Amino acid sequence: MNKITLTLVVSLFAATAMAQTKKAPVKKAPAPAAVKAVPELKNGLDSASYAFGIMMGTNLKGAGITSLNYTLLNKALTEAFQNEKAILTTDEAQKAISDLFQESSKKQHAASIAAGKAFFEKNKQVAGVVTTPSGLQYQVITPGTGAKPGPTASVKVHYKGTLLDGTQFDSSYDRGEPTPLSVNNVIAGWTEGLQLMQTGAKYKFFVPYTLAYGERAAGPQIPAYSNLIFEIELISVDAK
Fold first, then answer.
1. Identified catalytic residue from 159, 203, 209, 225
2. Pairing state of beta strands 137-142 and 202-207?
């Protein structure tokens, strides 16, 4: 082996040895997470004040409100306790709160609202289904021959109510007797629909949530934003 070759071999051997013995860089340990300061509750007022915050936050979150402007919330609370003039009137404040709840509720029920809209768009193409200007849809099952009820009439009806998926939530047929009611003391879809019928008629009504219970739930069986289907048989009319 000549001198040049020997020198190259020695150099390569030394480089390989250095690479094998070179220590890998030590990774820095992540910084510990900041410890959240626990508020000190020095007396009963402190505890009650904190409790009010817990209750308000929990109730609002349960109602679908996910965040607030906490700076303004605290400012308004302080101003109210100090009897300072609010920048919103009572009506404006109530509207702001109502609008926020409505917006939050619509987000929560967006899928149901969209499904209902699609249903009514498709249903209005079904033969025999009539759509009124209000959005109420109906289908005549059996025409009547008697009197039509007026807007303040008392009537007796047999009916069955279901959700769009067919889930039944009420039925006078199951109770075995017709139900007496006032035309002006029911949901808007019924008030409109009953006045289309003659005594002895049986109609099927498709009621959008805006003409039913709106953004509210109606008991455990009718969720908020529910579109409803009713079969209604008009048994009798008292024109009083």
1. 159
2. antiparallel
